[in-house]
Amino acid sequence: MSGHKTFTMLKPDAVENGHIGAILNQITSSGFKISAMKLTQMTQADAEEFYAIHKERPFFGELVEFMTRGPIVAAILEKENAVEDFRALIGATNPEDAAEGTIRKKYAASVGENAVHGSDSDENAEIEAAFHFSGRETF
Ligand code: ABT
Ligand code: MG
């Protein structure tokens, strides 16, 4: 069974490149409702915790550096089958492999700077949403 919630970040590259509006438009016009949203910046400790699953990987240092270099847009999205449908909307991790029309195909430059995050399970959607938002910021 799939849940109704996923968590996203428009990453520092997407914000730097002026793509916030276009990406949010694609998300909402694809049927996702925004139930929480803010512009924020991750600290090094935040990024190390958020991506702790990757801490032994060779790209971990660059990933943390990238994710902390500027503001991000964090949001909670709601839709039936949200996790799977949102991963389909954003496309493959490496934009070279992403399908035409997906957000990463259109806005991401590389696997290391891939414009947008989407939770990979219902359980992680809950954990990631709670990492970024308090109850009173969530609608
Ligand atoms: P996220 O939505 O950011 O979690 O990406 P996704 O789930 O599609 O891919 P995973 B495997 O979780 O990648 C996490 C971040 O690590 C970056 N990465 C990944 C690399 O830089 N090199 C690699 O070889 C791999 C596999 C991509 C993701 N972050 N960014 N940006
Ligand atoms: Mg991931």
From TrEMBL:
GO terms for cellular component: cytoplasm. CDD domains: NDPk_I. ATP binds at K11, F59, R87, T93, R104, N114. The active site is at H117 (pros-phosphohistidine intermediate). Its main location: cytoplasm. Residues 5-139 form the Nucleoside diphosphate kinase-like domain. It comes from the Bacteria. Coiled coil: none annotated. One of its GO terms (molecular function) is metal ion binding. GO terms for biological process: CTP biosynthetic process; GTP biosynthetic process; UTP biosynthetic process. The keyword Phosphoprotein applies. It holds the Pfam family NDK. The keyword Membrane does not apply. Its EC number is 2.7.4.6. Homotetramer. Belongs to the NDK family. This is Nucleoside diphosphate kinase. It comes from Psychroflexus halocasei. The lineage of its organism: Bacteria, Pseudomonadati, Bacteroidota, Flavobacteriia, Flavobacteriales. The gene is ndk.
